[in-house]
Amino acid sequence: MDALSRLIAIEEIRQLKCRYFRHMDMRDWQAMGEVFTRDVRFDCSEGSITTTLAGERQGEGGPITQGRDAVMAWISGAFADRTCCHHGHGHEITIVGETEATGIVAMEDFILSADRKTMLLNAAGHYHERYRFEDGAWRIAEVKLTRLFVDEPGATS
């Protein structure tokens, strides 16, 4: 891949991740499904686990979900009575072939109750991703969410 094609692919992937965040926050589940490959793997096994400065792991793991329909069912179900705001920063994207790329995106999210007044979670971490060119567009093929911190001031069990 020549330099210009590589830069275009990187920008398309950055835009892809921006759409992911916007569709998630706007609860546009149909459009959000289009950012994923058909066989996407979404790994939240470390999504709520943090490591203290002393090296101790805290928190609980989440699910690993396979396939676009299953991932979208899980996400839309998890946010059925919540609203959110996601920020993505510092996209590190590496093109590894004509149709494959990897990336790490720093993130912070705010998750609130349905009334948008009670903060349920504020967390930050990274999306570790693999992208694939499928059906004429770059799509997210694999996601692993890791966290630096998780604050749940209004969470209920």
| CATH architecture label name | Roll
The amount of beta strand, in percent, is over 45%
Mind telling me the C-alpha Rg? 16 Å
Q: What fold name stands as the CATH topology? A: Nuclear Transport Factor 2, Chain: A
| Overall residue-averaged pLDDT value | 92
Q: Structural class from helices and strands? A: alpha+beta
Commentary on this structure:
This protein is of the alpha+beta class and 157 residues long. It has one domain (3-151): Nuclear Transport Factor 2, Chain: A (Roll). It has 3 helices and 8 strands. It has helices spanning 3-26, 29-33, 68-78, and strands spanning 36-46, 50-51, 57-58, 64-66, 82-95, 100-113, 119-134, 137-151. The chain has a 6-stranded mixed sheet. A two-stranded antiparallel sheet has the order 2-3. The longest helix is centred in the N-terminal third of the chain and has 24 residues, at 3-26. It is globular and about 50 Å long. It starts with a helix and ends in a 6-residue tail after the last strand. The mean pLDDT is 92.
